[in-house]
Design brief:
It is a single chain. This protein is an alpha/beta fold and 402 residues long. It has 7 helices and 26 strands. The longest helix is centred in the C-terminal third of the chain and has 18 residues. It starts with 5 loop residues before the first helix and ends with a strand. 18% of the residues lie in helices and 31% in strands. The chain has 4 domains: 160 residues, Molybdenum Cofactor Biosythetic Enzyme, Chain A, CATH 3.40.980; 58 residues, Molybdopterin biosynthesis moea protein, domain 2 (Alpha-Beta Complex), CATH 3.90.105; 85 residues, Molybdopterin biosynthesis moeA protein, domain 3 (Beta Complex); 73 residues, Beta Barrel (Beta-clip).
Length: 402
C-alpha cells in the first residue's frame, strides 16, 4: 500500500478549515488570540506636534546663530501644554512628549542652551528647523488600518491597539479540542501505576500545545480498550461542543486498537489512515459531520510530533490564522546522517546558535518513539525527506524548532 505523503495529509487535514466564530475580549486577554477583523486607529499618534527631547521650544529663525538670546515665557510638559502662541524672540521650556507651542517649529535641546538668571536663555549651538519635533500623525493617522485580520496578537500588537485607543478587540473564538487517551495500560500522572501500567503523558503535553496555539483543550479522560467506552467518549466530546476530537493511541492495527472501528461505527467518513512519516505512521483523519477527528499514535514522541505537524496548524487555521505552519528553516548538521527510507523522518536533535551563521543541529543517535527524554532535550526536529541521500557533517538541512 502506498502511504500518503506528509504534505498531502496536512492539506487534507486543513482543507476547509477557517475561523469558527468571533468574540470580543479586553486587551488584557488578547495575547495569543487571532484578530478577527481589521483594526483601524481611532486617533492620530501623536495627536499634536510633540517634543522628542527636553529643552526649549523655539522658532528656528530665532536660534540660528550662536549667542542669540531668547526670552523665557512659560513651560510645557507632557499633559500640560503652553497656552498661547510663541512670539518672535520668545521660548518655552519644554519636556519630552509635551505639545509644541503654536508658532514654534524646533526644539533647542537643553545641552545646547544656557539658562540665565534674568529669565532669558542663550543659544550655545544653533539649530536647524524641525529638529526634535515629532509631527502630528508621525506614527499613524486616524482611520488608518494598522492590524489585519488573521494577525496572532503579541505584546507589541497589544501596545499598538492600546495606542490606537482600543480597549477591546474582536478575536476568533478558541477552537475546542477534545482529548481522549485510550489504553488499559494508562493511568493519570500522580497516581500509582499497576505492575503492567504506565503514566499517561500525552494529554497534558497536547493540552499545552493546544493552549499555545490558541485553542481550548477538553480532557475527556482515559478510556479503556473497549469499543463501547470509546464510543461513549466520542459522544461526550460532541456533547461538550468539541470542534476537533483527538484520540491518543488505538490508531494502529492491533486487536486492542479500536479507534478506527468505533468512530467508523459512529459514522465517521475516513479521510486517511497511515502516512509516510516517521515517527507517526498510524495517523487517522476523518470527519463526523462538522466534527474533525484526528487519531494520533499512542507512543508519546509520535503523538507530539504528529501534533506539531497536524493538530497545531489545524487549531491555528480554525482561528483564521494567516500562516498556520509548521514553519521550517535552514540549519547545518553537526554530524553526518545516513540515507533515509521511504518515509519523511523527523529526527530529534539539539540546537546550538552561532553568531552570524545558521544554527547547528546535532541529531540524537537513539530515536525510539517512546523516548521522551531525548525529545525534552531537543531544540529542533531535523526534516529528512523520503529517500534522502546520506548527508555529511556541515551539510545544509531543514528543521522545525521546538
Amino acid at each position: 500500500m502506498t502511504l500518503l505523503p506528509v504534505a498531502d495529509a496536512r492539506r487534507r487535514v486543513l482543507d476547509g478549515a477557517s475561523r469558527l466564530g468571533v468574540e470580543t475580549v479586553s486587551l488584557a486577554d488578547a495575547h495569543g488570540r487571532v484578530l478577527a477583523q481589521d483594526l483601524a486607529a481611532r486617533r492620530s499618534q501623536p495627536p499634536f506636534p510633540a517634543s522628542a527631547m527636553d529643552g526649549y521650544a523655539v522658532r528656528a529663525s530665532d536660534a540660528a546663530t550662536e549667542g542669540a538670546t531668547l526670552r523665557l515665557v512659560g513651560t510645557a510638559a507632557a499633559g500640560h501644554r503652553y497656552e498661547g502662541a510663541l512670539g518672535p524672540g520668545e521660548t518655552v521650556r519644554i519636556f519630552t512628549g509635551a505639545p509644541v507651542p503654536d508658532q514654534a517649529d524646533t526644539i533647542l535641546i537643553q545641552e545646547n542652551a544656557t539658562a540665565r538668571d534674568d529669565g532669558t536663555i542663550r543659544v550655545d549651538t544653533p539649530v536647524e528647523p524641525g529638529r526634535h519635533v515629532r509631527r502630528a500623525g508621525l506614527d499613524f493617522e486616524a482611520d488608518e488600518v494598522l492590524l489585519s485580520a488573521g494577525t496572532r496578537i503579541a505584546a507589541r500588537h497589544i501596545a499598538l491597539a492600546a495606542a490606537m485607543n482600543h480597549a477591546e478587540i474582536a478575536v476568533a473564538r478558541r477552537p475546542r479540542i477534545g482529548l481522549i487517551a485510550t489504553g488499559d495500560e494508562l493511568v493519570p500522572p500522580g497516581t500509582e501505576p499497576g505492575p503492567d501500567q504506565i503514566v499517561a503523558s500525552n494529554t497534558p503535553a497536547l493540552t499545552a500545545l493546544i493552549a499555545a496555539a490558541g485553542g481550548e483543550a477538553l480532557d475527556l479522560g482515559i478510556v479503556r480498550d473497549d469499543a463501547t467506552a470509546t464510543a461513549a467518549a466520542l459522544a461526550e466530546g460532541r456533547a461538550r461542543g468539541a470542534d476537533v476530537l483527538v484520540t491518543l493511541g488505538g490508531a494502529s492495527v492491533g486487536d486492542h486498537d479500536l479507534v478506527k472501528q468505533a468512530f467508523g461505527d459512529a459514522g465517521m467518513e475516513l479521510g486517511f489512515w497511515k502516512i509516510a512519516m516517521r515517527p507517526g505512521k498510524p495517523l487517522i483523519f476523518g470527519r463526523l459531520e462538522a466534527l474533525r477527528v484526528l487519531g494520533l499514535p499512542g507512543n508519546p514522541v509520535s503523538s507530539l510530533v504528529c501534533a506539531i505537524q497536524f493538530l497545531v496548524p489545524l487549531v491555528r487555521a480554525l482561528q483564521g490564522d494567516n500562516d498556520p505552519g509548521p514553519h521550517a528553516e535552514p540549519a547545518i548538521l553537526a554530524h553526518a546522517m545516513g540515507a533515509n527510507g521511504d518515509r519523511e523522518d523527523y529526527v530529534r536533535a539539539t540546537l546550538s546558535h552561532r553568531d552570524d551563521a545558521l544554527p547547528l543541529v546535532d541529531p540524537f543517535t537513539l530515536q525510539d518513539s517512546s523516548m521522551l527524554s531525548t525529545l525534552a532535550a531537543s531544540g529542533a526536529l531535523v526534516i529528512r525527506p523520503p529517500h534522502a541521500p546520506a548527508a555529511d557533517a556541515g551539510s545544509l538541512c531543514r528543521i522545525i524548532r521546538l
